[in-house]
Design goal:
3 domains; six-stranded parallel sheet; 14 helices; homodimer; Rossmann fold; elongated; eleven-stranded mixed sheet; Alpha-Beta Plaits; Dihydrodipicolinate Reductase, domain 2; alpha/beta
Chain lengths: 435, 435
């Protein structure tokens, strides 16, 4: 039986998960792949902390170059995270002719095109199932299963921290800060939560998925990103009263000559299967021209779900090594020469429906002034909802618009904010029809 | 660019879908696979009906042997259906060294082991993504993505006809016969519906999925199968009042030295994501030791969703042909020598919870007699629910049991049916905890 040597760089939670699967599932993996997947070396700056894994003959080293420069190692698993030193390691490994498996979405979203080029030059594989949606096979689905489909749209819940917090606000009426603290206590949120709650992690994943779905270069910088810090129980209660749920969605849609790519809190109908995806679970809904609507659902993060996705990549590459067919499926789903630059629609040009909430003064003429400004900006109002006066004497006024252009909405809101009729910034939540 | 020649046998709905994708998506498929997927020949006994597909140079022939014996054809797509003539065609094609793609679950469930052996002998691929769950990539997920997982359990809605009918009964309070007629009118059910509504189609799919999940030989005959003909609005209303939904589930679970494999109407909690899968949609929930709970959701049948799955197999095999790596992934997920015979638990030995509904006489002592017989048979009752007297003077009595053995339950029910306390056969619906 052929032996495939594997080196891991980064022995944190996911690294320990991958090491656990490679050691505990040795027999299963051999039975399935017909190869011995041998964990030869693990590199980490901390090699003293006990990760609770029975490593056997695996070497634990401090220097990542001991993995990258080892001529016996076939597959390098990059689990360092971030996009600085991880980028150096990954580039070096590819240049040394190693196949690389990574779970690093920040790295791919920021530098994926360069990595793909380097992998091509060195005729090696670069695999990243674990980078988006944890254990859900979204990368394989887009690259292989949906091969005969044009992907029309994707809507996805890709960040467990945000989904946990939104579920908590929705179920307990907690404020954002309370729900965040709770998530941190339970290990669903980092001490520095901004990468998650401000939507950046979701945007990293959307940049990768959009590339695979549409055969386009990875483009992070043009994705519009908003997080969930402004979501309040008040808005969630209003949403409920309309039969809606608020989720942080990654939205990717294709048009004639451009795509949409945006991350923001979104109201979706309770008939949309994504509305039932709660707590830290993730899901990806895809509408494709042959399959129609499909959805994947599962753990988007965590030690073993992520490790399971890394192992599916390792097994794929092991089969490629056995059969001498590196790069059998192109890294981004299309051969590199067929990958296009497709522009992302500037946010100002988006047409969608809006939920707008104002803290209005409780005196006559306010409603007419707000709706007047909206009307002047071509924004047509579908319904108006008003709740009793709050303790501060202000009245929450909610308006649901028909399809309107983002540019018009932003212009109107700036003008409304400048009047005496409202206090504070209006809350804007975009509505997706049947995403 | 390499040309891969494809022949289709069976030009019905799915055949026309596959032909549509191969012709309309020619450029997309070339861009993705780097090969020309050329539909050389279509064979069907009816070649006069216009299927609405622009076929170009494709030959339409009457004789399947014109496909099977054509030395230029690389991939044969079997879309005849059934397990008699389709079996002959498939065996002959494999023996001629053709790779075969099929959507035929009845064929695989009944004769899969023989087909796998024949494919092995001739060193060709046999692919069947479209056989289970339509466009959902369940076969690829089990064979490739979940490679490092032990599958603990699967629960799946695999028949759109049954799910449509159950949704209809649940939403409109229709009787089974009315809902079936409605499904037939809308094209969701066949004129001869028994393959679907009696659970056999679901059992075919479960036989295939269990094999892939557990590395076992395909075994249809030991799967316990019940359909949905006995499901009434009364039971669905009771289920709702407990926070449950009734679905026809395929259930596969693994134990130390055997597996469970059963198809029957099942009560599941509304917290279970499967409970929200309505109308003709399908879904497969998998609990695996590394990933935890995941779910795939999508169209389980229909022209284009099924054709999309067939195309994913064709593309996979095309890549194998280009790289000369036929059988890169073993047909059943494990190399044939590693596939075991694993026994299926006899239904009598199943332990689960039960919903039992009796049509009881409205006189004293009835409840005590029923619960007495259950008690004598070790069946402990969790709760009793009684509704007002019906027009026939009978009272529906529902009992929910704690975990009980199927054998005890059947014995007790036989005894209860023989008393004067109840009329007709009791209704038995098994309850799955958090499937």
């Amino acid at each position: 039986m052929k032996t495939i040597n594997i080196g891991i760089i980064g022995y944190g939670v996911v690294g320990a998960g991958v090491a656990t699967l490679l050691t505990q599932k040795k027999e299963l993996l051999e039975a399935r792949t017909g190869a011995i997947l041998n964990l030869k070396t693990i590199a980490d700056i901390d090699i003293t902390t006990d990760r609770g894994v029975e490593l056997g003959n695996t070497a634990l080293v401090n220097d990542a170059l001991d993995v990258i420069n080892d001529p016996d190692i076939d597959i390098v698993v990059e689990l360092v995270g971030g996009d600085t030193i991880a980028k150096q390691f990954t580039l070096k490994a590819l240049e040394k002719g190693k196949h690389v498996v990574t779970a690093n979405k920040a790295l791919l979203a920021g530098h994926g095109n360069e990595l793909v080029k380097t992998a091509r030059k060195n005729q090696v594989d670069l695999a990243f199932e674990a980078s988006c949606g944890g254990c859900m096979p979204i990368i394989k689905s887009l690259r292989e299963s949906l091969v005969a489909n044009n992907i029309l749209s994707m809507s996805a819940i890709l960040n467990g921290t945000c989904n946990y917090i939104l579920t908590k606000i929705s179920q307990d009426g907690s404020l954002f800060e309370e729900a965040l603290k709770d998530a941190q206590k339970l290990g669903f949120a980092e001490a520095e939560p901004s990468l998650d709650v401000d939507g950046h992690d979701t945007a990293h994943k959307l940049a990768i998925l959009n590339s695979l779905a549409h055969g386009m270069e990875i483009n992070l910088k043009d994705i519009h990103v908003e997080g969930i810090r402004n979501i309040t129980p008040v808005d969630i209660e209003f949403a409920k009263s309309f039969g809606y749920t608020i989720k942080l969605l990654a939205i990717g849609k294709v048009h004639e000559d451009h795509v949409e790519a945006r991350v923001h809190p979104t109201m979706i109908s309770n008939a949309n299967p994504l509305s039932h995806v709660d707590h830290s679970m993730n899901a990806i809904a895809i509408d494709a021209d042959a399959t129609g609507k499909t959805m994947l659902y599962g753990h988007g993060a965590g030690m073993m779900p992520t490790a399971s996705a890394v192992l599916s990549d390792i097994a794929d590459i092991a089969r490629n090594i056995i059969f001498n067919t590196a790069r059998r499926v192109p890294i981004l789903g299309y051969p590199e020469d067929n990958i296009k630059k497709i522009p992302i629609l500037p946010m100002d040009e988006l047409y969608t429906r809006y939920y707008l909430r104002f803290e209005a003064q409780d005196h006559p003429g306010v409603l007419s002034q707000i709706s007047g400004i909206l009307g002047e900006n071509n924004i047509s109002i579908k319904s108006v909802h008003q709740k009793g006066r709050q303790s501060n004497g202000k009245v929450p006024v909610v308006m649901i618009t028909h399809l309107a252009k983002e540019e018009w909405v932003q212009k109107a809101l700036t003008k409304i904010s400048a009047t005496d009729s409202v206090v504070g910034d209006p809350i804007v939540i975009r509505i997706e029809e049947d995403a």
